[in-house]
Amino acid sequence: MIALDVDGRTIQVEAGITVLEACLQNGIFIPNLCFVKTRKRPHASCRLCFVEIDGLDRPVPSCTQRVRDGMKVRTDTEPVRRLQRSAFKLLMSTHICTPRECPTQGRCQLIRTAKLLKVSLKPSPLERLERDVDPVVRLGPLVHYPYRCVLCGRCVHVCGEESGHGLLTFAKRGFNTVVATFVSEGEEGPCAECSACVGVCPTGALTLEAPETAESEEPGRAADSGG
Amino acid sequence: MHKLDPEKRLALLAEEARKRQAQASREDVPTLRIVMSTCGLAAGAAETRAAFEEALERRGLEARIVAVGCLGHCYAEPLVVIHHPASGFPPLCYYNIDPGKARMLVDSFLLDGDPALEYVLGAMVPNDLLPAVTDFPRFSMEQRVVMEHCGAIDPHSLDDYLALGGYGALATALGRSPGWVLDEVARSGLRGRGGAGFPTGRKWRLAAEAPADSKVVICNADEGDPGAYMDRTIMESNPHQLLEGMALCAYAVGAEEAIVYVRAEYPLAVRTIQRAIDDARKAGLLGERILGSDFSLHIRVFQGSGAFVCGEETALIQSIEGRRGMPQHRPPYPVEAGLWGRPTVVNNVKTLSTVPAILTRGAHWFRSIGTEKSPGTAIFSVVGNVTHAGLVEIPMGTTLRTLIFDVCGGIPKKKAFKAVQIGGPSGGCLSGDFLDTSIDFDSLTEAGAMMGSGGMVVMDEDSCMVDVARYFLDFTQNESCGKCTFCRIGTRHLLLILDRITKGEGREEDLELLDTLSRDIRDGSLCGLGKTAPNPVLTSLRYFRDEYEAHVREKRCPALKCRALTAFYIDLDKCARGCDACVGCCPVEAIFTTRGRKKAIDQELCVKCGECVTACPPEYDAVVRVSPAHLAPIIERPQPSEGRG
């Protein structure tokens, strides 16, 4: 066990883990979307888990830093919050929040992040960006909602590296990047419906259930899920 | 010990090469060297060559035609150097030789001995008869280390390279030790020419010391900046120099495998480098037990699919491994764990091509060129509004003013200089205040631009800086891999904001938003592409803020470039009665005849293509472009009944 100082509090953690894990284990919430413990190399793509570490001149993603004994970490400095708010606003400019239909039922990472950062779920001052995607896409047996997807890549990782199915992948590039599959619509392909991808999705963009459009038309059901 | 040492083996090879060369060239036969690299071919060098061949055959003349690489003088392509010993003239350099001039030269020079001096740029060597090209600033102010033999030798001939002492540095190194190469490169102070300027010696030492059984050397030839073509030219003009540099690097770090990562959009470079690899292997200069030593190296070509981001080293490695070309978080750096987890040195074409010269002439000599912290030369492809566009190799420390105005001949058409974009889409736009900045890694970074890999776009007074920033952002957001939030979504927002400013829909708060968002993207992105993508916005905002303000506040484009903010009108005092040159050229029939039988433009119909400006005879010069658009006087179209009255 080694000790590190986070926001003036000393925490004891096992050696070899990342600063992000150390904080999360000790109840210090750092916004994060793309982190998966089993990745050999941090994906570091969501750009939310910034912290400041003594000795480094600018904020760094805490998922890329291994803990060191005596390390001094600050999670709530102005430069950290500035980058986090900026990244969050960028994500919200392409994310459509529909709390009533959302399978996360309010336990969405984005809502939690907004609360911590004390910002609204609206992208302002940025404008909402239109993406050239369908609202609902079938990925083999999975149902995918691209407007909820933040392209963190957790599903792609667990499907390929952990479950060994390799059903999911990124397709297209840049702003048009989407999660896709080579399996035809509705077919199973190599998918064993293990729902690992559904479980790791931080924003409820993947389900194994029937598309919600049909669901939400039934009166009552949508209201049950709350806001 | 009957084994010959590498240097003696190479000496034998070079001697054979010189013998073969002597047999091929005869004193009485003229030699025509035609620049046939991609720049030459684009200017019509293939047609010029065909015209020479046809004319020679028709006249029954004998001449040796050699296709050479680029001389760097792309403004003068197609370039031909004719050496006609019997005429008594030194080798002469002819510029802009189209097929007609080629046929004429065969008749007048090769047949009659008249060199047609009006088409001569200069003699290739100093002489008593006529000025030599080396007297011109475009030649004399350059200092060629990497490009020394470009355009002089046949890139497809190993003999040409060997005859000039090629592979000499490799043979020397093989006779000494990898440590000697590492020391010499470290002492030379060479910094990576790919953009960031990391000390090459330190990178190689890290790879050499990395514990691993097998290591890899990768030459990064995935050149993607708009307007930059230094790496392509070097590969097309002197491929063996690059291969020798790669072999030296591999020997120094202990690698037996090397890869040239070149984009598939460079087919001629791919063919040239592949042929060079094959030739060198046959001669025992690559492959197993090079020059009889214990060192083996296998070099292969990997063709990239043209994604800009694959020029980033971790994305490049992903792409070779068959994955999606997305940058990875560093560390680990490739020198620790690169291709397939093995220690990997990734160096740019120019870096590797510099190494043979350093080892041949010594680190001390290399340090004598350039500045203390950036020794050596810099190669730029200078393009845009500049008289002598092309490839230029200058010592580091030369000022931008010298490079643009002295070496490259300044801005054409007597226009004023406005800005220079250095380092491609990742670099910055520098204003005239920075013309006396020294060209080296640190000074350019300090000014807000960057050395980059060597793309330089010169812009005159007619360039709108907001539009230029929009152009580069359009490029980077299109080339973003989509992995991290800031680059994927942030650059898209930047582009949309710039887009609406150029359309006159900009808002006051947009300037602040551009600035803060650019800073966040710079500080928050994962890889170098994202971190540097906002540079064109940040620098143009800093140095040309007045232009942004004019667009937003006055809906005015000072450079008269942005279509939505400008309008064309015809100055009735200048327009000639009865002339209708502009009427026919207008694609939307927006030009009508006024009551006074002059012409006017219907602003409702005009699409602002500018054709009427070109069509209006220069003696009238009556079409005026103004900004903001409402400055154009509105002239009523006469009613049909009125027109006849």
TrEMBL record, chain A:
Give the highest taxon in the source lineage.
Bacteria
4Fe-4S ferredoxin-type domain spans which residues? Answer: 140-159, 182-211
Q: Which InterPro entries match?
A: 2Fe-2S_ferredoxin-like_sf, 2Fe-2S_ferredoxin-type, 4Fe4S_Fe-S-bd, 4Fe4S_Fe_S_CS, PSI_iron-sulfur_center
What Pfam families does the entry give?
A: Fer2_4, Fer4_7
Q: What would be an example GO MF term here?
A: metal ion binding
Enumerate the spans annotated as 2Fe-2S ferredoxin-type domain.
Answer: 1-79
User: What keywords would UniProt list here?
Assistant: 4Fe-4S, Iron, Iron-sulfur, Metal-binding, Repeat
Q: Where are the transmembrane segments?
A: none
Gene3D superfamilies given for it? 3.10.20.740, 3.30.70.20
Protein's name in the database: NADH-quinone oxidoreductase subunit G
The organism named in the record is: Desulfacinum infernum DSM 9756
Q: What is the lineage of its organism?
A: Bacteria, Pseudomonadati, Thermodesulfobacteriota, Syntrophobacteria, Syntrophobacterales
Automatic annotation (TrEMBL), chain B:
SMART domains (UniProt xref): NADH_4Fe-4S
- Where does this protein have coiled-coil stretches? none
**Keywords associated with the record:** 4Fe-4S, Iron, Iron-sulfur, Metal-binding
Give the matching InterPro entries: 4Fe4S_Fe-S-bd (IPR017896), 4Fe4S_Fe_S_CS (IPR017900), Nuo51_FMN-bd (IPR011538), Nuo51_FMN-bd_sf (IPR037225), Nuop51_4Fe4S-bd (IPR019575), Nuop51_4Fe4S-bd_sf (IPR037207), Thioredoxin-like_sf (IPR036249)
Give GO MF terms, alphabetically: 4 iron, 4 sulfur cluster binding; metal ion binding
Q: Which residues form the 4Fe-4S ferredoxin-type domain?
A: 566-596, 597-629
State the family it belongs to: Belongs to the complex I 51 kDa subunit family.
- What is this protein called in UniProt? NADH-quinone oxidoreductase subunit F
- Please tell me the species this chain comes from: Desulfacinum infernum DSM 9756
